[in-house]
Amino acid sequence: MGTFCSIIRFENIYELKRLCHWGPIIALSVIAICSAMAIIDAVLWYWPLDTTGGSINFIMLINWTIMILYNYFNAMFVGPGYVPVGWKPMDHHCPWINNCCGFQNHASFTLFLLLAPLGCIHAAFIFVMTMYTQLYNRVSFGWSSVKIDMSAARRDPRPIIPFELSAFAASLFALGLALGTTLAVGMLFVIQMKIILRNKTSIESWIEEKAKDRIQYYQTKEAFVFPYDLGSKWDNFKQVFTWSGNPEGDGLEWPIREGCHQYSLTIEQLKQKADKRVRSVRYQAIEDYNGACCPVTKDGERIRGWFPRKCVEKCLYDSESDQLLDGEKKAR
User: Fold this and answer.
1) I want to staple 134 with a disulfide (CB 3.0 to 4.6 A). Which of 112, 146, 163, 317 is the partner?
2) Predicted structure pTM score
3) Total domain count, the chain
4) Which residues touch 313 (CB under 8 Å, ≥6 apart)?
5) Active-site residue set
């Protein structure tokens, strides 16, 4: 362990808890499977170790594995460092590109969401046709049985690499990945196109919905108009996609609808926050609990909006207004 600690830089042994997370578990599993299969294939079938080239190839495979694990563990335990003073909150962070999606890369991200399903559809077609053509002469369906003639693989013309059971399994697995990616990423592309054509993010749609509820609840008879929807889907589309590839504007000030201004949405948000403060109920935490282990063990009377239930209690005293809450007497 001492040698490991001297090679991989981390402050204390407790940093190893970072490995107990689905991200590192999946990443290390992929590294282990790919490395092990590459080494096994190279030693058994590709390039024997009794040759000079086979030995060099084997050493290179081991070297790749060591360098990958070394840099992976250093990235995990050393971390990104500390943010500078005045650092602003991130935009919409996407774990799949490991970056934020915002003003400069929204068009590229949306094109990726379009091209990925198209490429997967093409790949899925190739997988299906490959399995069909390779199995066509092997499989015969009877009334009550299915027969597989493996001698068909030895007929001319034979492929350079025989399409055996492992190749079929790999193609079938890849087909599942392609179809799953097409559905998942395709749905995300549809969502992004709705956002672009309305020029309205998901959070902004939520703000607009709350604005309508607030106006209806208080009967203020005011009309809220979303300022960034230019009224035309084509005009909204051109705000993201341009012939130059660069989005219009500077990302700070945006084209707005007639009758609105740059702070129309901000004013509505302030109204909603003020309304939320009026209707809010204060609670105080009575127990330090992070919820990482068995949160269902925290039973007791349920407090709306809080889980687990025993970690908070209703405040009887408002420190801001220096007044008692719910008619309770303050103990001196």
Assistant:
1) 163
2) 0.56
3) 1
4) 283, 284, 286, 303
5) 94
Residue 197 has which token pair? Answer: 């054509």
- Amino acid occupying residue 62: I
In this structure, which amino acid lies at residue 36?
Answer: A
Which residues span the domain enclosing 96? 13-81+89-140+159-198
What whole-number distance in Å separates Cα of residue 314 and Cα of residue 283? 4
Give residue 67's identity as a one-letter amino acid code. M
Q: Determine, yes or no, domain membership for 325.
A: no
Question: How is 321-332 classified by DSSP, letter by letter?
Answer: TTEESTTPPPP-
Residue 150 lies in a domain: no
Cα distance between residue 163 and residue 168, in whole Å: 7
187: pLDDT confidence band, cut at 50, 70 and 90? very high
* Three-state secondary structure call for residue 209: helix
Q: Give the per-residue pLDDT at 62.
A: 82
Q: Would you say residue 126 lies in a domain?
A: yes
Residue 70 belongs to some domain of the structure:
yes
For residues 127 and 175, the answer to whether their CB atoms sit within 8 Å is: yes
What pLDDT shows up at residue 140?
46
For the stretch 111-169, pLDDT in tens is 888 888 888 787 777 777 777 776 765 544 444 444 444 454 444 455 445 667 777 78
pLDDT at 229: 78
Let me know: does 222 contact 267? Beta carbons within 8 Å. no
